């Protein structure tokens, strides 16, 4: 089920934000984007999300910014003095030759130049205490997840109302079609009797005709399909009320409802019933579309 939540908080030594997005998906898929130092908590966060979300694609983005910029710059004295000694040694070797040429040698050694040399300055990023920070950030994550689920529940309430309105259309259509059952069966009987009348010869067995009529009525009547359809619709309503995550069961019931509607359509011979079958198919399609949003 779709949903969205974002929460941000500033702490003494850092700021943090969690953003959670939910998309329709047949199964549960969790996508986590975490700072490297918090990757060790990936499994724990997944368990928490799986405990509150049955299915859907859930994307979680975690951002953490160090407010104190825990950074230290050190001078590596060993490297620094190694450079200085190298300069001195080099100067002693070439100073005589430089004087012979009449050139002037600038012996000033700039501190800026020395500090710019490779390895003289060492920059150290102090790693945050992940475990301690997670103790602070976990409640923020749980709060974001709570808001996310509240948004999903709010949307779910609207979805439930919409789905049940289509179920009501189906229930009404079943009752209307049931009124046509006697007419359908009478039409079948009349058709069979007319066919037997055409074949009447001496020794015609009327009891056999009645038996054949009964067999064909069992084959072509839609009474059983209506009874099963009525039962599926009642189970659908019951599942919505008693199950907090009815999505999979409702998907199955929708398939069964579709099967009965299609059978009624294939057996039907009345225009009025055909129109009702079209209404039922449209309503069921709308239900299936909405079930993509149901966990």
Structure description:
The protein has 295 residues and is an alpha+beta fold. The protein folds into 3 domains: 3-67 and 129-150; 71-125, no CATH class; 153-291, no CATH class. 62% of the residues lie in helices and 15% in strands. The protein contains 9 helices and 6 strands; from the N terminus they run βββαββααβαααααα. Strands 1-2-4-3 form a 4-stranded mixed sheet, covered by helices on one side. Strands 5-6 form a two-stranded antiparallel sheet. Helix 7 packs antiparallel against helix 8 and helix 8 packs antiparallel against helix 9 (271-291). The longest helix is centred in the middle third of the chain and has 49 residues, at 130-178. The protein is rod-shaped.
Q: Quick gist of this model?
A:
With 295 residues, the chain is of the alpha+beta class.
Strand order of the largest sheet: 1-2-4-3
Largest beta-sheet details: 4 strands, mixed
Strand content: 15-25%
CA gyration radius, whole angstroms: 40 Å
Low-confidence stretches: none
Helix content: 55-70%
Structural class: alpha+beta
Overall shape: rod-shaped
| Helix and strand run | EEEHEEHHEHHHHHH
Specify the number of helices. Answer: 9
Averaged pLDDT, please? Answer: 84
């Amino acid at each position: 089920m779709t949903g969205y939540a974002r929460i941000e908080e500033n702490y003494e030594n850092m700021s943090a934000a969690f953003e959670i997005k939910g998309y329709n998906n047949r199964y549960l898929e969790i996508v986590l984007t975490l700072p490297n130092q918090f990757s060790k908590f990936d499994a724990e966060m997944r368990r928490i999300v799986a405990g509150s979300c049955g299915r859907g694609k859930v994307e979680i983005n975690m951002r953490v910014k160090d407010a104190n910029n825990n950074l230290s710059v050190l001078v590596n004295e060993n490297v620094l003095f190694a450079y200085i000694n190298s300069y001195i040694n080099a100067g002693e070797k070439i100073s005589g030759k430089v004087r012979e040429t009449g050139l002037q040698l600038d012996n000033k050694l700039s501190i800026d130049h020395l500090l710019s040399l490779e390895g003289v300055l060492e920059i150290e990023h102090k790693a945050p205490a992940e475990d301690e920070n997670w103790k602070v950030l976990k409640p923020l994550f749980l709060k974001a997840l709570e808001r996310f689920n509240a948004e999903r529940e709010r949307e779910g309430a609207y979805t439930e109302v919409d789905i049940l309105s289509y179920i009501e259309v189906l229930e009404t259509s079943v009752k209307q079609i049931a009124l046509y059952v006697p007419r359908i069966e009478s039409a079948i009987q009349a058709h069979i009797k007319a066919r037997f009348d055409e074949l009447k010869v001496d020794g015609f067995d009327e009891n056999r005709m009645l038996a054949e009529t009964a067999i064909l009525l069992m084959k072509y009547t839609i009474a059983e399909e209506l009874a099963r359809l009525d039962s599926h619709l009642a189970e659908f309503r019951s599942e919505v009320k008693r199950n907090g995550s009815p999505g999979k069961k409702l998907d199955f019931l929708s398939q069964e409802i579709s099967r009965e509607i299609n059978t009624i359509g294939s057996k039907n011979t009345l225009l009025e019933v055909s129109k009702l079958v079209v209404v039922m198919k449209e309503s069921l399609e709308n239900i299936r579309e909405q079930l993509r949003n149901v966990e």
